[in-house]
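Is this the right way to post structure tokens for a design question? Let me know if I should format differently. Anyway, here goes:
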């Protein structure tokens, strides 16, 4: 099919409103005022495991960005692609040392914080809804996860919630990264310097997740991080990338679940 002259083909974003990694990419798209066609996947119904999506993203996770007929996966790499392909406004620092700091901290987020977030989210926020479904449904969702370690972790937290063997280690890892962020904010407004960067948008969804799970103490116990969180939420991109997508019902369900267990957790 030949498109009319001047037709603009928008990027396509396969994502989920509550997904931290989806939020991370939507934040950068919003900062750069980039439009996209939205394809929302219902992760609890297993839409990420359908063959047509697996053809785009064999990891069966969101988001996936399709731009110029090319599928991009891994949220950190998607954001680096967006920064290179659409450089204005710049979200990477001007010096090589500062750019290294951005990449170093986003690697910590990917390697440590994100796996911990998955365990905590399923143990607290998602577990109540899953337990209302049949055992066969739950087993099918777990068995469809390609990564055996993620499959094991998911089974543990769905079975036992915050009493799961892997929960305490995940919470400790989560808070350790927040402590690192608190240290980075000493004497500067953003994680890697005086200007907002990809590192800030990489971390922000994980504070949003604590907020949505009513685990506010994890933020408020770190005063510099708390100020930074409010500063980031004041940016127009927060409304466009988070508020506009996340339903009050979803937040309410997460908060209700978090309030049930909050007093059992040490978040300071």
């Amino acid at each position: 099919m030949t498109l009319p002259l001047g037709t603009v083909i928008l990027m396509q974003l396969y994502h989920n409103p509550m997904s931290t990694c989806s939020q991370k990419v939507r934040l950068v798209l919003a900062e750069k005022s980039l439009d996209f066609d939205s394809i929302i996947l219902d992760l609890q119904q297993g839409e990420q495991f359908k063959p047509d999506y697996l053809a785009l993203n064999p990891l069966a996770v969101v988001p996936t960005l399709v731009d110029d007929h090319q599928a991009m996966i891994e949220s950190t790499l998607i954001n680096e692609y967006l920064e290179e392909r659409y450089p204005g406004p710049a979200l990477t620092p001007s010096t090589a040392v500062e750019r290294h700091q951005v990449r170093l901290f986003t690697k910590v987020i990917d390697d440590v914080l994100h796996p911990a977030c998955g365990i905590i989210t399923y143990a607290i926020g998602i577990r109540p809804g899953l337990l209302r479904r049949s055992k066969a449904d739950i087993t099918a969702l777990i068995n469809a996860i390609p990564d055996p370690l993620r499959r094991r972790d998911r089974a543990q937290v769905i079975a036992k919630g915050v009493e799961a063997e892997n929960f305490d280690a995940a919470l400790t890892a989560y808070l350790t990264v927040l402590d690192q962020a608190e240290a980075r904010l000493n004497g500067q407004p953003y994680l890697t310097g005086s200007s907002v960067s990809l590192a800030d948008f990489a971390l922000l969804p994980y504070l949003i997740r604590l907020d949505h799970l009513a685990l506010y103490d994890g933020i408020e116990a770190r005063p510099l991080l708390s100020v930074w969180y409010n500063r980031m939420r004041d940016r127009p991109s927060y409304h466009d990338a988070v508020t506009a997508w996340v339903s009050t019902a979803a937040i309410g369900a997460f908060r209700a679940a978090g309030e049930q267990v909050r007093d059992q957790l040490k978040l300071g």
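Format looks fine. Someone answered above. Worth noting: The CA atoms of residues 5 and 175 lie 53 Å apart. The first strand starts at residue 11 and ends at 15.
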